[in-house]
Design goal:
Helix content: 25-40%
Shape: globular
CATH superfamily of the largest domain: Enolpyruvate transferase domain
Radius of gyration: 21 Å
Strand content: 25-35%
Structural class: alpha/beta
Number of strands: 24
CATH topology of the largest domain: UDP-n-acetylglucosamine1-carboxyvinyl-transferase, Chain
Number of helices: 14
Bound molecules: uridine-diphosphate-2(N-acetylglucosaminyl) butyric acid
Largest sheet: 4 strands, mixed
Oligomer: single chain
CATH architecture of the largest domain: Alpha-beta prism
Distance between the termini: 8 Å
Length: 418
């Protein structure tokens, strides 16, 4: 079993660059089926979720290859309109094939999508929306069977601003007959970026970044070459990694306004912060006090940084309260942090943390992507060596993790299975 080994206690400082956002790239890859021309996504990290999406597209008949810093997709000749279980269970984002394939083809069969085990992760909002667009949906034996005559524009009000459902319904409506209005949309920056990408393909979409999005269907979309926004969650992870070590970091390719909810915690005297267009510099000045964190849809604090900020709070002065409002099961990592001496009590969706002077190295098991990132961050401050197993989860979303942490001065190594 591969594992990361980290000996904590080094002060992290230096400059790194964020990759393009995983959660922008994955729906964009699905969108390649909307056109007969090539789709090129630049600055695309070679992470496991991207490779899984590549496999899905290839299974359906697309040609997908990496060249330079980009991934090039030619989906002009699709042959199979199904996503079998061995592929769909690899990642939640397989669900984006619903919106994209049904925009161009009258049927799709997809096994229930997998992904990190962080909650129920239902897909009723996706399916209810697709039904409004004219899709007949049957769920049977772990599969979703969809058929439609045409995609017809409609008015859809989401019962919750789901990121994936907002994206799926936008994608599916790009080629619809008439126009679609989606209300109570999610507003995550990755959705706004997806809309910019689709507009570059020729889609007519209005209202990005707001809670109401209107899509005027067009007859055809063209190919596109696009560089997605930087990954705010990756950037936030390295910022917290550096601060927990008492260090300083300059991270480029991330829009500061996209992680205001994180930076706001450090705008007091505890840190020196400088921001410019797409660069954040942050340096620890004073000791940190406990935090109150409450996750929610953007612009609230991102659930994807909840595990990492909880790890950070384990060594802050005093008490912290972390309320998880998006997923039901996103505290599994806390039991691993306790092995390191962290003082955390979980009560339903709330973690109560009392800061400790020190954490201690331990053998730790990642059970999902961001929980894994939390274990990495905690290990950087712990006394002694930690071994972090479950690299396959962390590889889903963090490209060149050991290289980037080493560049910042961490004592980290990846150990490969023989
Ligand atoms: N939900 C439903 N029904 C639905 C869809 C969602 O009940 O049809 C519920 C979910 O169970 C969850 C909540 O709504 O409790 C939010 O889910 P959402 O659909 O917004 O999340 P997602 O699209 O599955 C994306 C990101 C996640 C991120 C969430 C929330 C991608 C590929 N994934 O997931 O990223 O946590 O939005 O911001 O964009 C990660 O990167 O580690 C990750 C899990």
């Amino acid at each position: 079993m591969d594992f990361f080994s980290i000996t904590g206690g080094r002060r992290l400082s230096g400059k790194i660059r964020a990759e393009s956002a995983k959660n922008a790239i994955l729906p964009m890859m699905a969108c390649a089926v909307l056109t007969k021309e090539k789709v090129i996504i630049r600055n695309c990290p070679y992470i496991k979720d991207v490779l899984s999406m590549k496999e899905i597209l290839e299974y359906m008949g697309a040609k997908v290859f990496f060249s330079g810093d980009g991934v090039i997709i030619d989906a002009s000749d699709l042959k199979r309109f199904e996503v079998p279980s061995f592929l769909s269970k690899k990642l939640r984002s397989s669900i984006y094939m619903l919106g994209s394939v049904l925009a161009v083809n009258d049927k799709l069969k997809i096994s229930f999508p997998g992904g990190c085990d962080i909650g129920a992760r239902a897909f009723d909002i996706h399916l209810d929306g697709l039904k409004k667009l004219g899709v007949d949906v049957i769920e049977e034996e772990g599969c979703i069977l969809c058929r439609r005559e045409k995609i017809k524009g409609s008015e859809i009000t989401l019962k919750y601003p789901s990121v994936g459902a907002t994206e799926n319904l936008i994608i599916c409506s790009t080629l619809c007959e008439g126009s679609t209005v989606i209300k109570n949309c999610a507003k995550e920056p990755e959705i706004t970026d997806l809309i910019r990408f689709l507009k570059k393909m020729g889609a007519k979409i209005y209202g990005e970044g707001t809670g109401v999005i209107r899509i005027e269907g067009v007859k055809k979309l063209n190919g596109v070459e696009y560089t997605p926004i930087g990954d705010r969650i990756e950037a936030g992870t390295y910022i917290l990694a550096s601060l927990i070590s008492g260090g300083e970091i300059e991270i480029s390719n991330v829009l500061p306004q996209n992680i205001c909810s994180l930076l706001n915690y450090f705008c007091n005297n505890t840190c020196k912060i400088r921001i410019s267009n797409d660069i954040i510099y942050i340096k620890k000045e004073e000791s940190f006090s406990g935090l109150y964190v409450s996750t929610g849809p953007y612009p609230d604090f991102p659930t994807d940084l909840q595990p990492v900020i909880t790890a950070f709070c384990t060594v802050a002065d005093g008490k912290s309260v972390i309320r998880e409002n998006v997923f039901e099961n996103r505290f599994l990592y806390a039991y691993e942090l306790k092995k390191m001496g962290a003082n955390i009590k979980i009560d339903n969706n709330v973690a109560y943390v009392s800061g400790e002077k020190k954490l201690y190295g331990a053998n730790l098991y990642a059970k999902d992507l961001r929980g894994g990132a939390a274990l990495i961050v905690a290990s950087l401050t712990a006394e002694g060596e930690s071994k972090i197993f479950g690299t396959e989860y962390i590889d889903r979303g963090y490209y060149n993790l050991t290289e980037k942490l080493s560049l910042l001065g961490a004592d980290v190594k990846r150990n490969y299975e023989n």
